Amino acid sequence: MRRLYFLLCCILLPFLANAAVVSGRILDEKGQGLPFASIYIKETASGTSGNEQGYFQLQLPPGAYTLEFKFVGYKAEIKTITVGEANQELTVQLTPETLHLKEVIVRASDEDPAYAIMRNAIRLRKYHLQEALAWSAQVYMKCVVRMDKVPGKVLGIRVVDVDTGIVYLSESVSQLHFKQPNKINERMISSRVSGEKKGFSFNQASEMNISFYENLLKVEGLSERGFVSPLASNALFFYAYEYLGTFQENGRTINKIKVIPRRKNDPVFSGNIYIVDGSWRIHSIDLRLNKSAGVEFVDFIRVQQVYAPVQENVWMLVSQKYNFEASGMGFKGRGNITGAYSNYKVQAAYSKPPALEEPAPEETVPEVVAAKPARKKRPKLVKPKEATPQEQPPIHDEKLFSKEVLVIEREANARDSAYWAAIRPVPLTREEIQDYHTKDSLEVIVTSREYKDSVDRLRNKPSVGNLFIRGYTYSNSYDRKAYEVVPLFNIRGGESLLQYNTVEGAVINLATRYTKRYKDRRNYEIAPAIRYGFANSQLNVRLRASYNYNPVKRSVIAVEGGRYVEQLNNLEPISSFANTFYTLFMHQNYMKLYQRDYGQVSFRREVLNGVYLNTFVNYANRIPLQNATYFTFRERESAGFTSNVPVNAELADASFQENQALTTSVILSYRPGQRYITRPDMKININTGYPTFSFGYRAGIKGILGSDVKYQTIAMRITDDLDLGLLGTSSYSVQGGTFWGKENITVVDLKHFNGNRTVFAGAYEGFQLLDYYRYSTSHAYLEGHFEHHFNGFLFNKIPLFRHLKLQEVAGLHYLYTKESDNYLELNLGVEHILKVLRIDFVTAFQEKQKVHTGFRIGLGF
Fold first, then answer.
1. C-alpha 661, offset from chain centre
2. Which domains does the chain carry?
3. Beta-carbon neighbour count of residue 205 at 10 Å?
4. Residue 186, Cβ neighbours under 10 Å: how many?
């Protein structure tokens, strides 16, 4: 079917190319080009815009057309043209809008007329939001990002292959379909990326379709809280309004309202909004967000939208622009995103629109003089009449909508320059034309071995960041290969090259990884590791290999084996860096280790959309280890080293003898309603409003290959993230399970928990004061975690905290096992300290008695 569609496009393209081109430029009163001025074609219900210099071009078949040229702050200009076979050029000059103030009698107690207008718009907000029961449109998007300044290094890591000028230029054309309340289907039929002829755009029209009729506007990446719309139900709490005047357009009166934040640091917009008098709908907007509104990663963003009637009593977005500037970490850049909507098809929700009727004036008694003017009555709301299927027949087949919200056609990047010249509604600027020409011409060069090798030579130079943050990577970009080595001291957690513990003493842990990637995103990894402990003179070797043979389904098969040293707690709750620090400087050895000679085969795959399978089979010879050294730089009487045998409340003696274990595990996870994006080379899952349910089964199988252990355990787990709007975001997880059929079970086989005894924060979905092994169990258990990020909801009201951009966080963590009784931790914390740090104060309770308190420091972006 897609091939047929592509063939039809190729056949019809010459006819499109023969259509007449109407081009020209939109100027201001001084003769300067108006950037991104809007153009609305009444006969086709289509919108587009000019480019940054005001130039425009329209591809129109023969006929008569009414063109409306608009720019926020300027009077609309209407041109009626007749298109034949010859091309036409138009020069359109717009004049600043002339605002007229209504004649009103103003008393000292009266409020600005803008408030009455905005109250009316707010009352009809949800009706305008839902006035189109369903619609479809063709959406053209263009995204341009420029870098004005690029640093040489970031956090000690060299920046290569990024220069000033345009760094990203992409265009796309999509067919976008929508049905109330939230059904979306988008099909990208055309895609172009400068310098990547085989690349696919990351534009997404459905994500750009932001409506200011919504109470809260959530823009991923800009803010964790979202932004309050000037038309929100509670907008009067956040905004002040100023009436600037009216102007006439197509027989309608348009009110210009200045939008003013009541408080400097609320998550709100500033600028102007235009409201149509009588229907109280949005005509257009020109609003800004800046740092004081809580935007992240950008310095400011400007949003411009233009609406137009596409059907009687139904107005839709016909063009919008986003301009932004950003700086940080030594980078400085700017960009813009343009969207043009055309070929609308609409199924109206109402046969008669809502209205606000002014109440009839009350009779007054001349003899009675009021002490103060009577309060004006609220207009009466006349609800709309819903349209019947006969009046507004459906425009979509219900089968069109599914969990797949966006699909990019495989042939989308195969369109040539003639196709784009015919379909592009917004002409390219000279700079953009040059960028396409230069990068497309240089693509052969920049993808050559010589060029990629030259870039790799810069990228492969060691740096401080390589040593302490992410390790060293040697890249061979042309062959899509990479060789990685773990950092000397991994301050983020994970493996380190240099370690120290009381079992092995000083340790060299040379863990490496080789990765090979293919054009279709398949890849395989080979990860050998050699570990030597100087105190116990023990050499350990491990090899892991994995193959991702189906990236769309996330299908990975892996094998590993060897002899290696592992933590008794399979969750590895203490990092090698934290344990090294505490052993050498705090005289405390929290990490408990054993030796494992093993082999394992594992497999994971997305079986169905939202359903994931993860399983493994493992055979191991498990050998206990003892302390081999007691060296520390700082002996402390209040501390002291302990045995390598942990203390466990259920086991009188947690030591074990050498044993063999054949174990298997199956985990099945399901996320209902999971939506996703399909690209030709990958699938991107999108979070939904439903939690993830997981079922796990693990067993020790006795008697096969000499296995000594026998047990079975099951667990159920529920996790989810909750978006509470301005109040912040929450996350929770609840897990419960039990064991049965236990024989010869050891401390290695217990259900362990993420504990922490150091000042360095452990996993935040875990415990910060709990011992690593004390309440590990082979019986029934229940574990729960809840954490809420206020995202500045409270701290933004404190000037110093607001200036430092600090944010507050709170959590509750619960554990019940046979021996722990009711264990509870409460934490209050501050995150985003220096942008990356987080500090928590944690209190632990057991059976309502406070048992421990402490501070924890970690990463909190």
1. 42
2. 2-98 (2.60.40.1120), 113-358+379-423 (no CATH)
3. 23
4. 21
Spatial CA neighbour of 143 closest among 405, 276, 323: 323
The string of DSSP codes covering 706-739 is T---EEEEEEEEEEEEEE-GGG-EEEEEEEEEEE
Cα dihedral sign for 417, 421, 426, 427?
positive
CA distance 819 to 575: 26
**Beta-sheet pairing, 593-608 with 611-624:** antiparallel
Q: Which of 269, 132, 172 is nearest to 212 (CA)?
A: 269
CA distance 858 to 848: 27
Q: Count CB atoms within 10 A of the CB of residue 713.
A: 24
d(CA 260, CA 540): 66
- DSSP at 100: B
Q: Are 273 and 282 in contact (CB under 8 A)?
A: yes
With beta carbons less than 8 A apart as the criterion, state whether 509 and 497 touch: yes
Using pLDDT thresholds of 50, 70 and 90, give the confidence band for residue 506.
Answer: very high
Please state, in angstroms and rounded to a whole number, the distance separating the CA atoms of residues 775 and 817.
7
| Residues 769 and 825: beta-carbon distance below 8 Å | yes
- The answer to whether 507 touches 497, Cβ cutoff 8 Å, is no
The DSSP bridge partners found for residue 531 are: 509, 540
Residue 232 CB: number of other CB atoms within 10 A? 21
Beta bridge partners of 720: 732
Question: Backbone dihedral region of 63: left (phi > 0), alpha (psi from -120 to 50 degrees) or beta?
Answer: left
**pLDDT bucket at 50, cuts 50 / 70 / 90:** confident
Which segments of 349-403 are extended strands (E)? 350-352, 355-357, 380-382, 385-386
Q: How many CB atoms lie within 10 A of CB 462?
A: 11
Cis peptide, bond prior to residue 181, ω within 30 of zero: yes
Rounded to whole angstroms, the Cα distance separating 578 from 762 reads 10
- Residue 441 backbone dihedrals phi, psi, to 5 degrees: -70, -35
Three-state SS at 161: coil
DSSP state of 112: P
Q: Which residues pair with 676 in a beta bridge?
A: 404, 685
DSSP secondary structure letters along 619-685: EEEEEE--------SS--TT-----SSPP-SS-S------EEEEEEEEEEEE-TT-EEEEETTEEEE
Q: Which residues fall within 8 angstroms of residue 637, CB to CB, at 6 or more apart?
A: none
CB 315 within 8 A of CB 123: no
In contact, 838 and 830? CB cutoff 8 Å: yes
Greatest alpha-carbon pair distance for the chain in Å reads 109
Of 5, 413, 411, 49, which Cα lies nearest the Cα of 202?
413
Q: How far apart are CA 186 and CA 532, in angstroms?
A: 55
Q: Is the pLDDT of residue 299 over 90?
A: no
Confidence of residue 20 (pLDDT cuts 50, 70, 90): confident
In angstroms, the CA 656 to CA 434 distance is 71
Distances (CA, A) of 795 to 298, 324, 609, 725, 800: 21, 26, 40, 16, 9
What pLDDT does residue 161 have? 63
Distance CA 115, CA 112 (A): 6
Q: Distance between terminal CA atoms of the chain?
A: 46
Question: Residue 107 pLDDT > 70, yes or no?
Answer: no
Kindly state the DSSP code that residue 166 receives in the 8-state scheme: E
Nearest to 488 by CA among 582, 576, 590: 576
Q: Which residues touch 46 (CB under 8 Å, ≥6 apart)?
A: 40, 318, 340, 341, 342, 343, 344, 425
Looking at the chain, the whole-number percentage of residues with pLDDT higher than 90 is 57
Helix, strand, or coil here: 152?
Answer: coil
Residue in 588, 590, 577 with CA at minimum distance from that of residue 633: 588
Q: Which residues contact 114 (CB under 8 A, 6 or more apart)?
A: 241, 242, 243, 255, 257, 258
- Is there a contact between 575 and 493 (Cβ–Cβ < 8 Å)? yes
Instruction: Fill in the amino acid letter for 259.
Output: V
The answer to whether 487 and 467 have CB atoms below 8 angstroms apart is yes
